[in-house]
């Protein structure tokens, strides 16, 4: 089978310039070098709390803010990457795990941004069936299992066919690679499964097993074995793309907790085995991959957009010690905006109108008041505000509002005809609110996360430093597309607060 | 002559309870013991930056906030107490000196509040002419000068008559007292003057001369001599009340600057001499006096209220590095409010309707927008705000607004009939604004002086600690008359900031 375009496009690209966007003002890089998965890695644990000076004008087709430094799936509050949907599940506000459109959009935007940055990528093709044999495969019990190299009319290429009556034996492909991102095309004919064997360092080398099985169970784990359901609808050719390291660690964390000590240091992929009955092709391992995750996120948004153009969030959200509540099914202006940013990029990258149409439909809720199930609040009955959390009374979260504005900008900048009129109007009126209200978030030594103190009459909810830096990064982005000095001056003053500068007193 | 009622009423009252209003939470008293004017004094230099927990419900007839601790005339920015008007002149924004209604109202309110507090008062009667002789007086040159004890029909009592052809000699009353507040009734027949001789401590005892002369010159000084013009309209009986220590020090400061070292340590009043032609009676010196200053301020407000009910301020005011300007002739919502608070107390104390009518007329400018010469601003086109400085754009000074609200409260609480309807309405809508907007002044570690950052898009203008404590004292006052927990909780949180408490971050 020919690989789909996006999987091959950057296969041979390498670059040593891992960090091209570091600003001159960034003097220290926080993080640490760690050894796992056979590589020495620099862990960007705090990378999203750094100020990144934009290198040029922001573009709706380019890197999203500084998201090339984000690692969404690494976060503890990501339960795992769904085997069926290919996107993360959040446990932030519900331990059961739920699809959170903001997290999914950020997952897609971070992988798109990483894709645009020249990251070194190494790919090893394990099997493309073009050799017309099965020389790489081993079969434990030929009475139970068999493997063949066949022509597949649907795929339009030669593929590997497997048939194993006993699910515990199966057919086996030795791997022996230090590359932990797996991709393969597959078509299951019966209830088949894929098992990847991984070896980790220890006093004695340890083996771990990651199983991808035909079920709708999200994830389970038992000892050294982790199971991901990849659904029971795999009878047509589809591509499965999995970050084996993430999949193993999320599985082990289920039972062992999330401490660093429970994280085995992976040495290599030992082998891959297939059981049941089906066909596979284009099996590769690579050091990383970003376009599959980007597309998985964009496709999820297209599939799950509802009739109001929104992505309802099916978990209760409680803020301000219970004084603000959103029952399950709420929409988020930030989710709508981040989805727009992702969908516009998916459209620009593929020219698939479906992505653009979804982005255009996503604006409708910006004209619906929070009290009526939309995301529109008004500050002092005057300034419209697109709410990350459309509570009653309103809470006016700053970073969520700016993400909504960036989404509207992306959309109105991409759609220059009449279809973009709503996005254009909403962006303009939102920017008017931002410019008027931004100073209200300034404490003279930091910034405030939201305006709940205004609506509830309580202490201001001060932004911790990583949200403060998010505010700065957002303002620096906006300052490249809007010349109002308020934006750049505020960003500069707020960056100064991180170095100990203070606003004057009278 | 009988003394006027208010000058005798507290003549014999003494009390050792100098500080009855100290809250339990006040652990330290800042200031220092100093020796001057023959007394050991505790200087309350920072007293108005202390938090004072109210001891009971605020009353429009009672102490004004914690103004019993204020010493308006002591401030460097007070040029002197006018000999004609009996009220302070400010040099805060204009070195020429000008009558600033806020300062005048605060002068009156502080003296009224001090009067209500049981301060020890010692009075020595130097001359009341009831002895029917002039035994206490000396005449240097009987050819030039004479002194008599006579019946005065206008005064309805015996008085001292003096006549001195040579203004350098005159008639003399030895004093020898350590009491530095002078009061006398006088009627000048020709161009007369009064000279007080004061002795100060030094390597060698030093003499100083304070002259009260028939002229319209405000103040002048030459060496050890200070001159106050008391006007040329003194042909009817009037009372002259002067704080000799303040008068001397303000005069010396004209030439010697304002440093502490230039302040002589007064030992005693040596003598009082009269020249020209006129009559005097009821000459006393006392340790302090407050009702004359209170009435001088209230009477000044009645005399100088204009046809719009306001007290125009005849000095340019420039704020925010020149970005906000008020040309001379502006009105201040704070001046209007503080005047109301003073006039209501003057009415309550005297039942003179003139005071109340002036207070009622003072509300009119609260309904006139800043742009039209009034004091009314609107925050976000929604919340009315009575501006201390009615600039365009608005600046929303918090403490000035609350003083305006307290004035409106005083008035609407005192006038319970229809005449108080405007004050009542203005107070209610102002309190709505205050409760809505108060959180916007909270930085999580202090308070903000105004909202210029909102209107100008600049850094917040943080309140220094003495304004922060003013905010707290104002909120504590309001909390005694309005049970909304926002007021008391904000005051409590803001007091916590002074002890290092901080609002939480997310």
User: What is the strand content of chain A?
Assistant: 15-25%
Q: SS-based structural class of chain A?
A: alpha+beta
- The third-level CATH topology of the largest domain in chain A is Glycosyltransferase
CATH architecture of the largest domain in chain A: Alpha/alpha barrel
- Largest β sheet strand count, sense and barrel closure of chain A: 12 strands, mixed
What is the total tally of β strands of chain A?
Answer: 20
Percent of residues of chain A in helical segments? 25-40%
Using the alpha-carbon principal axes, give the shape of chain A.
elongated
Computed Rg of chain A: 24 Å
Number of separate domains of chain A = 3
Flag low-confidence runs of chain A.
Answer: 1-37, 39-47
